[in-house]
Amino acid sequence: MAKQTQLSVKTIAVMELIAGGNSYEQILRTDPAITYRDISDAAQEVITRVVEAKSRLDEIREQYPRAYMKWTPEEDARLEEILRQGEFVSRIAKALERGREGIRSRIIKLDLVDLLPPEDRAEFEARRDRFREARPSVVSPEETHALPDNGNNQTDGEAGNEPAPPVEPSSLTAAQRMGHPLART
Fold it and tell me: Are residues 86 and 114 in the same domain?
């Protein structure tokens, strides 16, 4: 049996309602087609995906202990230093204990493509162009570490952490009809 990598439409709809601050009772009133069992199944589906992702992350970190961890200013400086020495991405990945794709992404994000050997530069320039199209302003390394807190670390009751208003009853069925980019049918 192939691993399921996408959440069902119903699970996404239920989890969005929960994330919006709705109680089980509010969710059940939102759409009569949703049952307590659906809410329980949605939670179980999400938990299963989280466990699978954690297992995969553990496997990756056996080879690359710093994979998917936040970059430090020291690591950014070390990346630039190693690039200036003319090292290949695979050797940089080993030195920084990160995956090759993570190294490639960071080179692009920090706009260090010009430090690459000419034979590697063309591939990275194309990636950088796609990155810039998706995110018009490339942030410098100094700015990356000086970005303000986005408020995600606030505790309940602090400003900016108010629960979202309950979702209107028609929203769930509209979400189900429209589907979701991560949803399976």
Answer: yes
- Calculated CA dihedral for residues 98, 101, 105, 108, nearest 10 degrees: 110
132-154 pLDDT tens trace:
787 765 555 555 555 444 444 33
- Mean pLDDT within 114-136: 79
DSSP string for 82-149: HHHTT--HHHHHHHHT--HHHHHHHHHHTT-GGGS-HHHHHHHHHHHHHHHHHSSSPPPHHHHHTPPP
Q: What is the Cα–Cα distance from 68 to 88, expressed in whole angstroms?
A: 20
- My answer on whether 100 and 44 are in the same domain is no
In this structure, are 54 and 84 located in the same domain?
no
Phi (first) and psi of residue 48, to 5 degrees: -60, -45
The three-state secondary structure class of 80 is helix
Do both 45 and 94 map to the same domain?
Answer: no
Q: How far is CA 157 from the centre of its chain?
A: 26
Domain encompassing residue 30: 1-63
Instruction: State how beta strands 7-8 and 183-184 pair.
Output: parallel
DSSP 3-61: PP-SEEHHHHHHHHHHHTT--HHHHHHH-TT--HHHHHHHHHHHHHHHHHHHHHHHHHH
Backbone angles phi, psi at 184, to 5 degrees: -100, 160
What's the number of domains the chain is made of? 2
